[in-house]
């Protein structure tokens, strides 16, 4: 029979926009908290305090390594397990992530207490007046690292478990409290100790954001079971570390990179150039403010779709993410080049005093902004590859970018050219990193260590025999046609006429109830994705829709359905497997019909 239906991306497109807004809000809030630290410190405490907070960045990145590695890993592994319908395992991963992030971060508390002062002296270099402020900032960040770690894991995991809005709410609530306390403490504390308050406000905000765990625990959309014991879940540690290794490595390399930058800055830059350098080190927060919210969709959505082996959906999401990320980055680049003075005002830096340096500060900013588009491409691949559990290209990109090309070029160019050398080095390291990632993919495929088609490393588009992937309008008039098509396809590829007929009967019942109950009062696009796989001894059907929450496995037939083969009871009788999950806020119904080959 000629295929009359083809797969479309209408459901996936809707899912992209449903996740985009809360994810963007989450990252906006998260990144704005980091950016606001610099803005508030610069506006309320002055140029020196802004420089001190920038010099303390290596320690900020260092204490975030467990949080970013375990948090990023939990989002990817959790989404992947839910996509594979392994709810108990996903529940264990959530608990394990909280435990690992907290315990791993505890090591920074004693290190911060004993090492903050000598490290502050090292980082301040030729500017001893900065030592007290650098010390205060680093000490508090190190001591509150376990709180930060737990908060980041919670916020990163929630979007993977049907709760993107709560993930956004965590950072919105946390950063509103963070900024309120930071401004208040900067105003009421003596300037000599105000940096204690500026740093402590981050931890206070994280604690406030934990309130989202209350609605999460009560949510009907939540798949994670808090009662699932952690026992036996520690074997997921390797998966968490592997999935989060790219993010963890990036954070660790950023810590080392900023150490090199700070040593070069305090050794070779003038007093007038130092505030411009501090602004540039905070520029990544500016671009990430707009960019990461788009890219952050991939760890939760792409990982889940990849776990379901929905490669069509993966490509659809990736195409939209890349396009939107590049448009946003291009606009930000244009604004930054046309109005660089805006950033001096935002960070509270005196432009006239900065002009006393050897480099024109406006030219420095405009040169640095050229790197933004290359930066966006790098970030796209760093987020994408771990989402499909392939780390090598992302790790190579990070190592080349901020482990080799970045620090080497920045140190040498700042030594010879001053602060504009840092702007040139940003362009160099981003271009070299893109080349490194592409080479890693090319070499990996040549050596058979990586597999897949194209730069995305996905299976080829041609479907093997026995695999049917289609989309149908969610209308009752379509049921009989698609059921006939599924039955013909199943019979042709399995050779089992009886099993194909049972499959058609079960699918018809599920589709009928899904359209009747799942799309009740539902407006907008109404489509259902259906995947049929003919395995060696079974027929497997996966039905997915974005209608209202409807679990056919717990549906009880009403009296008026007695003449309709007892409704859903038929499915329970004919299917060897009948399961339901709400993943990515979509209904997923899975049925398996045993064929005669299994019984033979």
Look at the structure and give the mean pLDDT.
85
Which stretches of 5+ consecutive residues score pLDDT under 50? 561-565
The outline comes out as elongated
Helix content: 55-70%
Q: Largest beta sheet, briefly?
A: 5 strands, antiparallel
- Termini separation comes to 28 Å
The overall strand count is 5
Radius of gyration: 27 Å
- Residues in β-strands, percent: 5-15%
Q: Tally the helices: what do you get?
A: 26
The assigned structural class equals alpha+beta
- What is the strand arrangement across the widest sheet? 1-2-3-5-4
Q: Can you give a write-up of this model?
A:
This protein is α+β, with helices and mostly antiparallel strands and 600 residues long. The chain has 26 helices and 5 strands. It has helices at 10-45, 47-55, 57-63, 65-83, 87-105, 108-124, 131-143, 145-157, 164-188, 194-209, 213-218, 237-268, 273-281, 283-295, 297-307, 311-338, 341-347, 351-354, 361-369, 372-387, 392-417, 419-446, 479-494, 497-518, 569-574, 596-599, and strands at residues 467-473, 527-534, 538-545, 577-583, 586-594. A 5-stranded antiparallel sheet has the order 1-2-3-5-4, sandwiched between helices. A hairpin with a 3-residue loop joins strand 2 and strand 3. The model is unreliable at 561-565 (pLDDT under 50).
């Amino acid at each position: 029979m000629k295929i009359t239906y083809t797969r479309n991306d209408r459901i996936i497109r809707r899912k992209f926009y449903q996740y985009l807004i809360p994810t963007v809000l989450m990252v906006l809030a998260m990144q704005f908290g980091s950016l606001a630290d610099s803005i508030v410190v610069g506006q309320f405490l002055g140029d020196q305090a802004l420089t001190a907070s920038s010099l303390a960045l290596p320690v900020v990145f260092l204490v975030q390594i467990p949080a970013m590695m375990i948090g990023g890993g939990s989002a990817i592994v959790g989404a992947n397990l839910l996509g594979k319908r392994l709810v108990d395992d996903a529940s264990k991963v959530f608990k394990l992530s909280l435990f690992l992030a907290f315990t791993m971060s505890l090591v920074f508390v004693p290190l911060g207490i004993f090492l903050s002062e000598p490290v502050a002296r090292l980082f301040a270099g030729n500017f001893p007046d900065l030592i007290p402020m650098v010390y205060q900032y680093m000490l508090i960040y190190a001591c509150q690292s376990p709180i930060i770690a737990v908060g980041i894991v919670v916020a990163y995991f929630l979007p993977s478990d049907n709760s993107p809005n709560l993930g956004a709410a965590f950072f919105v609530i946390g950063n509103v409290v963070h900024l309120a306390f930071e401004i208040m403490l900067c105003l009421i504390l003596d300037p000599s100790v105000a940096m204690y308050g500026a740093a402590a406000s981050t931890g206070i905000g994280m604690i406030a954001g934990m309130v989202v765990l209350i609605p999460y625990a009560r949510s009907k959309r939540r798949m994670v079971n808090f009662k699932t014991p952690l026992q036996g879940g520690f074997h997921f540690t390797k998966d968490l570390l592997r999935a989060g290794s790219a993010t963890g490595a990036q954070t660790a390399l950023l810590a080392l990179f900023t150490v090199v930058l700070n040593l070069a800055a305090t050794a070779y830059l003038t007093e007038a150039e130092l505030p411009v350098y501090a602004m540039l080190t905070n520029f990544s927060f500016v671009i990430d403010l707009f960019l990461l919210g788009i890219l952050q969709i991939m760890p939760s959505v792409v990982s889940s779709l990849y776990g379901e082996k929905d490669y069509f959906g993966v490509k659809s999401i990736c195409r939209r993410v890349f396009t939107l990320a590049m448009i946003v980055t291009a606009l930000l680049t244009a604004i930054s080049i046309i109005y660089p003075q805006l950033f001096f005002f935002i960070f509270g830096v005196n432009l006239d005093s900065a002009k006393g340096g050897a480099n024109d500060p406006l030219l420095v900013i405009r040169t640095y902004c050229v790197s933004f588009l290359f930066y966006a491409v790098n970030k796209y691949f760093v987020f994408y590859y771990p989402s499909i559990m392939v780390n090598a290209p992302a790790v190579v990109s990070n190592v080349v970018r901020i482990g080799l090309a970045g620090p080497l070029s920045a140190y040498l160019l700042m030594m010879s050219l001053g602060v504009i050398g840092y702007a040139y080095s940003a362009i160099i390291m981003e271009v070299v990193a893109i080349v490194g990632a592409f080479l890693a993919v090319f070499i990996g495929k040549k050596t058979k260590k990586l597999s897949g088609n194209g730069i995305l490393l996905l299976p080829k588009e041609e479907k093997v025999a026995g695999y049917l992937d289609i989309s149908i309008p969610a209308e009752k008039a379509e049921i009989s046609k698609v059921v006939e098509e599924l039955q013909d396809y199943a019979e042709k590829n399995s050779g089992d006429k009886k099993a194909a007929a049972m499959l058609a009967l079960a699918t018809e019942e599920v589709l009928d109830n899904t359209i009747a109950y799942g799309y009740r009062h539902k407006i907008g696009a109404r489509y259902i994705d259906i995947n049929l796989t003919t395995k060696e001894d079974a027929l497997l059907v996966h039905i997915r829709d974005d209608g209202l929450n409807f679990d056919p496995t717990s549906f009880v037939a009403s009296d008026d359905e007695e003449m309709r083969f007892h409704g859903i009871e038929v499915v329970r009788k004919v299917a060897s497997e009948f399961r339901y999950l709400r993943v990515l806020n979509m209904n997923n119904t899975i049925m398996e019909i045993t064929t005669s080959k299994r019984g033979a």
